Amino acid sequence: MIHLPFFIFTEINYMKSKQDIVENWLPRYTGEEIENFGQYILLCNFQNYVEKFAKLHNVEVMGKGKPMSCATSNGITIINFGMGSASAATCIDLLSAISPKAVLFLGKCGGLKKKSQVGDLILPIAAIRGEGTSNDYFPPEVPALPAFALQKAISTTIRDFDLDYWTGTCYTTNRRVWEHDDDFKAYLNTIRAMAIDMETATIFSVGFANEISTGALLLVSDQPMVPEGVKTSESDSKVTADFVDNHLKIGIESLKQLINNGHTVKHLRFG
Questions:
Q1: Where are the domains of the chain?
Q2: Which class is 18-261 in CATH?
């Protein structure tokens, strides 16, 4: 006689929808409960931005040791999503769990024009989708654009800091090590981009796919088109010491401007 194993069947809550998934995964990735997130989000690639934000506002950093640590104060949450377009897309998808009013990316970029210097700010009016990740969301011919109202708020804040900025397009690539490739650098010259990074086009595209208003303020951290301008540990440390505090403060004040004025950023109809 064969004895079949006895199973106790319990009710399992399967995650059937995207909303089920992102509501479950956002706390898992960040260490923060959904109800504690602000409606205005700062995104960054570096943990020191999160630590500086937490120190400025005397709050705790959540999710240390998790993929996307964060901190929240006065309706603003800053998240370090790591590096690269895949992580950027994941973070934006997860943020759809809370439908934030605005998401601002504070990224570092390589300056592609001689006129831009290390420490300069670039306010991208569009991004070129060279990364490939955004192709999972839209066909290649769909442009990657920020929310105009958010970029306008950033522009105003930069001027309030008595600083200036460059505008132009940012080329986003998945390729991190390319500074040795003369053919690729010749291609970058032909497309007339102001900056190169690994996330901006993805954030704009995936934000649009999720009906989330996104923007970016990029800090020129190196000049990779010439050998002497390629980023090193020493040069990156100097950029951090000299320019990161203002970069972060401009991002915070830009979102505060939107919060205090009650202006909506989502001025376009998605669909």
A1: 18-261
A2: alpha beta
